[in-house]
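User: Can you fold this complex?
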Amino acid sequence: MAHANAPYLGKDLLGLEELSREQIGAILDTAEAFKEISNRPIKKVPVLRGKTIVNAFFENSTRTRVSFEFAQKRLSADTVNISSTGSSVAKGETLVDTARNLEAMNIDMVVIRHGASGSARFLAERIASNVVNAGDGKHEHPTQGLLDLLTIRDHRGPLQGLRVCICGDVLHSRVARSNIHGLRTMGAEVGVCGPLTLLPRDVQTLGVTVFRRIEEAIEWADVLNVLRLQLERMKGGFIPSLREYNRVFGVTRERVERAPRDILILHPGPMNRGVEIDSDVADGPHSVILQQVTNGVAVRMAVLYLLAGGVPDHAEAAKTGGES
Amino acid sequence: MAHANAPYLGKDLLGLEELSREQIGAILDTAEAFKEISNRPIKKVPVLRGKTIVNAFFENSTRTRVSFEFAQKRLSADTVNISSTGSSVAKGETLVDTARNLEAMNIDMVVIRHGASGSARFLAERIASNVVNAGDGKHEHPTQGLLDLLTIRDHRGPLQGLRVCICGDVLHSRVARSNIHGLRTMGAEVGVCGPLTLLPRDVQTLGVTVFRRIEEAIEWADVLNVLRLQLERMKGGFIPSLREYNRVFGVTRERVERAPRDILILHPGPMNRGVEIDSDVADGPHSVILQQVTNGVAVRMAVLYLLAGGVPDHAEAAKTGGES
Amino acid sequence: MAHANAPYLGKDLLGLEELSREQIGAILDTAEAFKEISNRPIKKVPVLRGKTIVNAFFENSTRTRVSFEFAQKRLSADTVNISSTGSSVAKGETLVDTARNLEAMNIDMVVIRHGASGSARFLAERIASNVVNAGDGKHEHPTQGLLDLLTIRDHRGPLQGLRVCICGDVLHSRVARSNIHGLRTMGAEVGVCGPLTLLPRDVQTLGVTVFRRIEEAIEWADVLNVLRLQLERMKGGFIPSLREYNRVFGVTRERVERAPRDILILHPGPMNRGVEIDSDVADGPHSVILQQVTNGVAVRMAVLYLLAGGVPDHAEAAKTGGES
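Assistant: Here's the predicted assembly.
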């Protein structure tokens, strides 16, 4: 079962750019079926029992790592974590050597987060184990994109024709890129809004509408996906100050209340409250930020299940332990 | 079962100050029943199978974290560790956001250690998951207090009327506070002994007897609980030197041998041998320091079991796997 | 079963120097039987279910720690990791106190890596739990030695009479010492080759042949075990430059092609490609470097199984879950 091409996804999940509408739909449907496991008194099914997974996080992350770990444990996999601190990578070993060594230990899957764009693909091409990209540089963060799509679908139904605006530091954001690819593939209209210094120069080639003013974005959109502002951008000269950023681009209650329709607010976290988003909005009635986190576990369970050769139609049976 | 108020403890264990004599007694009795599990060839019962627990240690600790982890694994829970290094907290996220995110992943329990007094309560009031305080600033460290009580009870029987003196840096010690509350609730007489600079100014309002000389404390007490001297206190000007501290307040063999009765010596560890306690005493016949560690696992198993809705009278049945 | 002297190994595995030919043979045979588990779809047998193991890595290591962790998880043990960062050791606690505390938590085994030669023995003499040395200073790294032996035996049959040359920084290498002891006990002829500054002064008392030129070593040997060059040696003045080291002692394709027989190339990793070994050789037909990694998991499973009281002849039965 392991190390084989999954019938629905291929060997790896590297980005949403490569996935078809059917593939994304299959992941979301499977995640929908898996949600219920995390609400059981006993949150555990034997789907990945005896599978060995390495979570290789060469960049810090609590939220994504913990989400993957619980997804793995709820599927009964055996997991080991490695981080950059203390790893052989710190001893100057190449990523390929690290990967080949893990594979030689008969690892079934590697979940990798790494600062270099393309590192997940680089790895995937060199080992037979399934590779899941948990964020590679500025490239993609596909499970984040998928959980955003699932959360929007939960609240607004089919994504076709929905208007979703991604706000903030699109230039440096792998979350933005995964959202843009996933949303467009599913038929949504995508906008971006942020200071020119934080939008990619070629942003229009991505097939998105560009908004210069947050008020216009809010008037246009059914959904806002508000990106985290990396505070170090200020030092880099991309924005004049945090206060100024909040004044011009902050998603505030006042602005949200002027929206012409019942707008949905997402944020991938961790939030800078009072910078890109105000607490009133983050904790308000339009926010689905915590449901994104809940959906994150379900989406990651679905991806791991499908990569291990699971079949979407069998997800219900797998949950009862009928398939292991 | 999870997220409900435990019939015996309420939703959380935040401190011993809030617990009644019956509640503390129930925890100690349950711990007594659970001790035996750690002596089996197969140290595992299915009491918390499929429960998900996060150990969030924002301050370093090996001993407490490992003790909780083994308690959790022996009860078959799925656990994930997060530490301050590499966590979203390091990215500037608030503790509330971290907590809400964990909860959104359908976590059953959070074990938290944090440098700020009151942080465990702050968390507990904001999430529905059970919260166990594993040490919050200078406030409380309730499972340490409970394991101290259990160890004293193991050796001296009922705590009612026993004289227990807490020696050393009472001012900065959450262990001291948990001991004082727990011991007094159980009817013990409590003394404290240390340099005036390391005793709280309002110490007498806590209902304890103050000893200025270690010799007097030893003459009075049935039990000494010797606190770790934080070596950084010397730099803070609280004590003149380590050597001087040992000379005046050190629990030495010579002093212990002059005790009028068979005194019992506890220390929460890690020990500064030759400072607050001499090796002769730490490893001598009066010391029950290693039994404290053994009892720590049993006490933590009991607390997790009771918070998950377990009933003390059923602890014996739970151990055989008859209840999961 | 636990804490008892294993009939085949004694209580601990501290080094290969102490093991007899029969003992090493028993470990290798057991590892051979366990290899197959890691190729199953469900890589898990209940051999160590309910056993608790601490991996105490006071020096950084990804590869060895991950290998031990997967070995433990594939045998169904419960494991907890501690590292120097954040441990009580960082608070000034002695290694003995740390060890006694772990033991007091009813730990069955401790796997220790530590910078001080002799630390594993020091620990083993003070606690009843089984101790496995995962590398102690410049002394020994016995599971690495065993996996090297297993890999050579897999490819060249019985070790008796084989010529194995260890190349590089023999002076500082615990891998070299474990190899020399293990290989000589099994009847192999052992050579060493490296700059005089990186060979122990008393190297000849170890019963090995010394080669000053890598070309001579290659002409003599059936097997080369190429050690990692610690890059900090250059700063220490042990070698003039990395380029010069590669020029004189590097295992290059050109040199390997001149070997008079089908030479086998091992390296314990992580490799400095282009320094002690060229990529052509590391990834070439003579290299068994990745098989070493694969064998590492099997060897560690075997060691843990035997220390827990397992019997080599029963290893096959244990694999089917017939013995737990």
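The two ends of chain C are 10 Å apart (CA to CA). The interface with chain B takes residues 1-2, 49-52, 54, 78, 80, 82, 85-94, 97-98, 100-107, 324 of chain C (CB under 8 Å).
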